[in-house]
Predict the structure.
Amino acid sequence: MSMSNKQTKHYVYVVDKKGNPLPPTTRCGHVRKLLEEGKAVPISNHPFTIRLKYDVNYDHEQAFVYGQDPGRENIGEAVSGEVGACVYLSDIETKNKSIKKNMSDRAESRRSRRRHDRQNKQRKARHDGTEIRNGKEDTCRTKISCKSKEVSYPGAEKPVTHKIIQGKEGKFNNRKREDGWQTPSGRQLIQMHMTAMKKACKILPITKVVIERNAFDFQKLENENIHAWEYGKGPLYGYKSYKDYIWDEQHGKCLLCGQNKIDYYHHISQQKDNKYDHVSNIAGLCQECHYGKHGVHQCQDTEDRLLELKAKAVQKYSVGLLNSVIPELIETMKKFCNSNGIDFSVTDGKVTKNTREKHKLFKDHCMDAYAISLAGRDDIKDISFPDEVHIQRRFKKKSNNKIAALNQREYWFNGKCVAKNRHKATDQKGNSLEEYMEEYAETHTEKECRRHIHELEIKPARRTYTYHKEGLVAPIHPGDVVVYEKHNKIKGNTKREVFVATGVEYTEVIKSKKGVKWTEREWKVSFDNDSKTRKAKFCHPVASGCLQVVETRKLKQHLSIVETENKKLEKSKKKKQKTVNKKAA
């Protein structure tokens, strides 16, 4: 899409003395004069918004239509004026996929802490002689012989086995979900769409809201010629088990070497990573490619090659969550509009596509939102755009997470890490101590092995904590709008910047004065996608929020970036498809 300079305008957003939004203006000279005379004050840099300090009699109500293109990873926003001119464009990065990973990491830390606490109680019970006496013979952690007892709790499908000691009563019936419960990812997605709309309503007098109802047919995306009777038949239709399907798909040969017969059915993405259990995630492998020296459990290169061969292991479409969220999102948005006197309507993808093609708009999230705001309107006379696109990002506010990482026990010899953990952990690629000593015993005597194991330096597994563990509070949090001011005494000037903090961290700095040394914490604030940093002592926050404008792009620049990304995506899809076709042949 070609754009001349006449098709773009620079808008300044205006609110009255009480904070009510007024129509935006393109009279930048008049705005500058109002600011110089003290008749207006700026209240936001991105987008640039001013608040008038005098009363305004505004009787003529213009129709401003807000259009939203829903999405899981990206949300498009646009507002069109009375005759169709676009006055606001925004693209939002939701970071929604990180929620599930963060919750999994938190659960892993919680289970690890509870497991260690339970082991400490078991050791104390064995030391004090207070372990279970009347129980059946069992083993704890595969090696320690002990007594165990099975207890049935209300709400539990199976009895719980207590070893060495009897723990607290399992309260399975305490966990209840209310009607209309949404997953954390779905709940955040609804909140993000609503926050984006409310934020636009604060700077523009929106009279109507239009949202596109997204409903994706995944099987239609896979096979556009699918028949109605084929929807109930999955990939395992006609097979007794997934093993028969994999055997038939790979013709009974190992996926990696293509020569030996299948001995193991390997899950490419482990269940602990909360990945899906599907035939597209399972590969048939032989003994050598599975557990051999250069197998997937030992060599990272082999695992990477397996991912390429099994290209379908990664889900092609990430909109499944959006399908389940859209109905509740529409109801929530409709309720908000009704309570604020705003008209609300829903459109579909077909109307959006026809509108986009009719007005020759570029294919992008914010441009789709503009097409959504124009859907069904016959009064369109002016197709023009603002000269800026506001890139917004979602921030997680003020995390109190104390554990940053869970490390592994390491064994070092001559300055080199030779093994990790006594026994091999799940997904561990290097040698464990057990495997390392087995290899060492092949070329050394038993006496040399006993001597060598005492020569190893042990670095115990420790948790890496954040500054919250020490009760510290960061002066600035990610998502804060920060003003940076630093006075240069030599030049006599002051450097001033306003930016959105994307990260904050501190380092221990050793300082000395008159022979006395001490350690101080030096906080640094990062911004501009973490590429720049500033010292926190020269920064002070002026505003905060979970949704902030991190970048303002010129419209031509934004469309150029989107076009480049689309080309890369198409190239990547073609490459994956060639790999799949080559393997199928």
